[in-house]
Design brief:
By secondary structure, the chain is α+β, with helices and mostly antiparallel strands. It has 10 helices and 9 strands.
Length: 274
């Protein structure tokens, strides 16, 4: 009996020893090397984890920086200050400061401008409303359920009395969260120096677009003809700005019959005070 217990104990001890040895070797073989610079760079970054840099979060962006797979100024939230700190930490020269950008909502569909003859009783989200055909006569415009505002972590989008979200310019960090959230693709990021924009995304023919919204683009080409060649074009009855070769002027917008293209501050305020 004692012999049996002794043998069992020795066997258990040997098995434990063998498993321990296997675990030790496994930990060495499958050990994942960590670079302390990643953790330190993550601390330098703002910690917003907004994804505006193109990576899931700040830690992944930090790793990409260490691996030289991301630009030093890739964090739009931190801006030039963060880019300078990152460059200094990595022993590199800070890149030139980028021109400031912000989000623009390209829709004039406020109450009293866009016609609303539809009744929508579904879930109060933009995605649901768009999938159901929208709540306005123009099927390309803003449906006003503020999906963009819900994903903005910086308080840069607020509600308006007329149903269209408002961008708070001083708070916008160009993180792209609102761009991704808009099912109508109405929101774009552009430099603040580019002051002329077409605030419409309707692809309906002129008469139909005008019937749906008083300030719709009707595809008349007047702005295209008044702009340097290549600066604008008409595509699917809609005036499109060439932002890669931006050359719009006062002449570009002067004769627009619906004022769809304008230099007015549309759907934005500089700041808000509560």
């Amino acid at each position: 009996m004692i012999t049996t217990i002794t043998i069992a104990s020795i066997s258990a001890a040997l098995i434990t020893l063998i498993l321990a040895i296997i675990l030790i070797f496994s930990s060495k073989i499958f050990k994942v090397e960590t670079d302390e610079r990643v953790a330190e760079l993550t601390e330098i970054l703002p910690g917003a984890n907004c994804g505006g840099c193109g990576f899931p979060g700040c830690a992944q962006f930090a790793k990409a920086l260490v691996d030289e797979k991301a630009p030093l100024d890739g964090c739009s939230v931190g801006g030039a200050d963060t880019a300078s700190k990152v460059a200094n930490y990595l022993g590199k020269v800070a890149p030139p400061q980028k021109e400031r950008t912000r989000a623009y909502i390209f829709c004039h569909g406020h109450e009293g401008i866009a016609k609303t003859n539809k009744v929508y009783n579904g879930a109060e989200t933009c995605v649901s409303a768009v999938m159901s055909g929208g709540n306005r006569d123009c099927t390309y415009g803003c449906v006003g359920f503020y999906d963009c505002m819900k994903v903005c972590e910086f308080g840069a989008i607020v509600k308006s009395e007329t149903g269209i979200p408002i961008i708070v310019e001083d708070k916008c960090v160009s993180c792209n969260a609102c761009v991704k959230a808009c099912p109508q693709k109405l929101i774009e990021i552009h430099p603040v120096s580019q002051k002329y924009h077409v605030y419409c995304k309707s692809k309906d023919k002129g008469p139909i677009a005008k019937k749906s919204c008083d300030r719709a683009c009707i595809g008349c080409s007047i702005c295209v003809k008044a702009t340097k060649e290549g600066g604008m074009k008409i595509d699917n009855y809609l005036a499109i700005v060439n932002y890669e070769d931006y050359c719009l002027t006062d002449e570009s917008i002067a004769k627009c019959p619906t004022k769809a293209i304008t230099d007015e501050r549309v759907n934005s305020v500089i700041n808000v005070w509560f």
